[in-house]
Write a structure and sequence with these properties.
Layout (H helix, E strand, L loop, with lengths): L9 E6 L2 E6 L10 H15 L6 E6 L10 H8 L10 H17 L4 E6 L2 E3 L1 H7 L3 E4 L4 E3 L13 H8 L1 H10 L2 E3 H7 L4 E2 L3 H17 L2 H13 L5 H17 L1 H11 L12
Parallel strand pairs: 2-3, 3-4, 4-6, 5-7, 6-9
Antiparallel strand pairs: 1-2, 7-8
Helix pairs in contact: 1-3, 5-6, 9-10
Pfam families: ECH_1
InterPro entries: ClpP/crotonase-like_dom_sf, Enoyl-CoA_hydra/iso, Enoyl-CoA_hydra_C, Enoyl-CoA_Hydratase/Isomerase
Protein name: Enoyl-CoA hydratase/isomerase family protein
Length: 273
């Protein structure tokens, strides 16, 4: 792929078709600064058009995923002149995060979150826009905004999409913190590991499955899933049928069906069994 953007808050490593993104501000439990938001946005913009990258794995350094927004950025915004709407520095700060998390949510790549330690506020929102979320035994999840006198403005819609309005109300309005087991029960994460070794095993299994699935078909499927509930069902199914017909006629469709008949892995699966 082309050279990755230079990042000061993120560590980036390419391993085959996977980009590993490590949030690297361990001294503040990986709190999300404006710089980090900009760097995450630049990274996801870069890989969106790169067909060699099929999955992005996000995790945090130092035992924490992300503890939420950076208080220093908020203090800095408070020191600026404020106005209404887009001129307001708090608006710009908050909205920049929302644009980034929407970008991650709509990425055509398979986004995998490895959640450990603090998964709070913006970090909680980032976990909720992953396609696959694996929690370690130390993970604690929460929406503490209301207990701080603010609101989960940009993450709330994604939390509702993830776990439904009823559970989102309870978490947001009580400012609760929950453990990995309850997060799995609610559907915030899909799997809970009991050790670092098991985290690596579960991640390896997920990435192996990514390799089995055709990249273009995966991207089209993800886009289709995001349209559910936002369009009329009849129109959505009409469009989906058109996408299906195009997929069948595509190079991927031809290779996939031929591989099935010949009882061999498709080319995009590489050397997996």
């Amino acid at each position: 792929m082309d050279q990755l953007p230079h990042c000061e808050t993120l560590l980036l490593e390419i391993e085959g078709p996977t980009l590993h993104i490590t949030i690297n501000r361990p001294d503040v439990r990986n709190a999300m600064s404006l710089q980090m938001v900009a760097e995450l946005s630049a990274v996801f913009a870069q890989i969106e058009t790169d067909i060699s990258i099929r999955a992005a794995v996000i995790r945090g350094a130092g035992g924490h995923f992300c503890a939420g927004g950076d208080i220093k950025d908020m203090a800095g915004a408070r020191g600026q002149e404020t106005g209404d709407g887009e001129a307001d520095p708090f608006y710009r700060l908050n909205r920049a995060f929302g644009q980034m998390i929407q970008q991650v949510n709509e990425s055509s790549k398979v986004v995998i979150a490895i959640t450990e330690g603090a998964v709070m506020g913006g970090g909680f929102g980032l976990a909720c826009v992953s396609d696959v979320a694996i929690a370690g035994p130390t993970a604690k999840f929460g929406m503490p905004e209301t207990s701080l006198g603010v609101i989960p403005a940009q993450i709330a819609p994604f939390v509702v999409e993830r776990i439904g309005l009823t559970q989102a109300r309870r978490l947001a309005l009580l400012g609760l913190r929950i453990d990995a087991k309850e997060a799995c029960t609610l559907g915030i994460v899909h799997q809970v590991a009991t050790s670092d070794e098991q985290i690596d095993d579960l991640l390896g299994q997920a990435l192996e499955r990514v390799r089995h699935c055709a990249p273009k078909a995966t991207a089209e499927t993800k886009a289709l899933l995001h349209r559910v509930g936002h369009e009329s069902m009849s129109g959505l199914l009409d469009s989906a049928a058109e996408k299906f017909a195009a997929a069948i006629r595509s190079d991927e469709g031809a290779e996939g069906t031929m591989a099935f008949v010949q009882k061999r892995p498709p080319k995009w699966a590489g050397d997996v069994e």
